[in-house]
Write a structure and sequence with these properties.
This protein is α/β, with parallel strands linked by helices. The protein has a single domain, classed as Rossmann fold. The chain contains twelve helices and twelve strands. The strands form three sheets. Strands 7-8-6-3-4-5-11-12 form an eight-stranded mixed beta sheet, sandwiched between helices. Helix 1 packs across helix 9 and helix 5 packs across helix 6. The chain is globular.
Amino acid sequence: MKCRVCGQDAHISLRSYNTALCSQDFISFLEKRVFDTIQKYNLIGNNDTPIVAVSGGKDSLSVWHILNKLGYKADGVYVDLGIGEYSQESLAKIKKTAEGLQRKFFVFPIRKIFEKGIDEIAKVMRRVPCSACGMIKRYAINKVCMDNGYNVLITGHNLDDEAAALLGNLLYWKEEYLWKKSPFLDGHEGHLSRKVKPLFLCSEREMAAYALISGIDYIHDECPFSINAKSLTYKNILNNLEETSPGTKLQFIKGYLKTIKGIEEKKRDISYCTTCGYPCYGGTCSMCRLLHRFHIKDRIGFEEWGSNLDITQKMMT
């Protein structure tokens, strides 16, 4: 099997595109796909200040690497969930990447603030850990963005993530969430950063290959609380379809984007939290209610890690 570009031995087969590439041309191919996605959907502008939500996994560290390689000077933000060795190893991978990129990153340490890990917090909230994690992450990351002037939040959601989420939303007809599967979500000036997904059209397999070839050191273990997540079931269904019909995931997502284009979104009325100003659907946001439940008053803090890994303690008002 030969590389379609240079004619040398191919190292990866891309069945969705009916082609094969050598390692070097694959790297160029994927980086161009990310760049083209950014340009086509206007994800990051010349005057934007981007930041990447990093977890220590292959997708978030790879997109951080790619963006800085493409000239987008992006910093990082990490929510430390306090899950023992898993969180410690994740932070170690992020530190290593930040040092290599010479970019700073912020850490929101849940255990330092709540004196509990995400599993214990979830029990108090009477939610499953994934639900509690999502709520806290959204708030914490956005607060770091707002307090430090980042108007674009970048996530590492890939094609498999988005296709699985879309399938789940369609199966249960979650109309409100169907609108949130595009490569970008608009923000609210002064309250909420714009969210973008440059890996929207890059598959999980492609991202794993990119991380391996590029030498990106990431945590291979999955979050211990994601074992029974429904998204894994949806991914398996789509993987089976992809095996028999290459390109299924890509066509599923592209068809979705084409279908929703021009259809008016049914928006709910959004208000702002009376305590912190965060967008919500009631008088007080979920995070402020949680802080009140834990008797955490006034302010909560985060850490800013410089590119040389020096730490500055900061407070969020």
